[in-house]
Amino acid sequence: MSNIMAVLFNGIAQLEYNRDTPLPDHQALYLDKMDQKMDQGIIVGDKTIKNPDISQRAHFVAGNLAHALLQENETVAASMCTYLATRFPELKQVKIDQAEDQLSIDLVFDEDYKGQVEVQFMH
Questions:
Q1: How many domains in the chain?
Q2: Three-point CA angle 79, 84, 59, nearest 5°
Q3: Which pLDDT score, from 0 to 100, does residue 86 have?
Q4: What is each CA distance from 73 to 15, 20, 76, 79, in whole angstroms?
Q5: How far is it, in rounded angstroms, from Cα 118 to Cα 106?
Q6: Of 27, 36, 40, 99, which one's alpha carbon is 20 to 30 angstroms from that of 119?
């Protein structure tokens, strides 16, 4: 069983989080503040969810992760990845796919991330 959680965008790994690496105190504090803000409610589409449950929080953060990747905001993407990996220890992969203007996000709990394999082409 792997302690790696991976974020894939259109099938290509973007981020890998190793749960064996200790989380610095300042990052843990930031994640706690994220939880406190979500305790006050989250906005999903045009709906406000006043008391989001754990699943709603996971999807909300994964959506923010997807948008951070699209905007190439590495700092926010890393924070969202860290939140998901630490708050959902059984989460193995976040699969984000984009087709035209549609974005789909799949939280995978039952399939270990195997890593990317480099393919060498002969000349």
A1: 1
A2: 105
A3: 95
A4: 12, 25, 6, 10
A5: 24
A6: 99
Q: Is residue 47 part of a domain?
A: yes
Residue 68 is classified by DSSP as: H
The more confident residue out of 120 and 69 is 69
**Is the per-residue pLDDT at 93 higher than 90?**
yes
Domain that holds residue 85: 4-20+28-108
Structure tokens at 89: 């220890």
pLDDT at residue 96 is higher than 90: yes
The answer to whether the CB of 113 falls within 8 A of the CB of 16 is yes
Say how far apart CA 115 and CA 123 lie, in whole Å. Answer: 26
Buried/exposed 64-78: b ≥16 CB within 10 Å, e otherwise: bbbebbeeeeeeebb
Tell me the pairing of strands 93-99 and 47-49.
unpaired
pLDDT digits (tens, 9 = 90+) for 4-27: 999 999 999 999 999 999 999 999
Q: Which two tokens stand for residue 102?
A: 């549609």
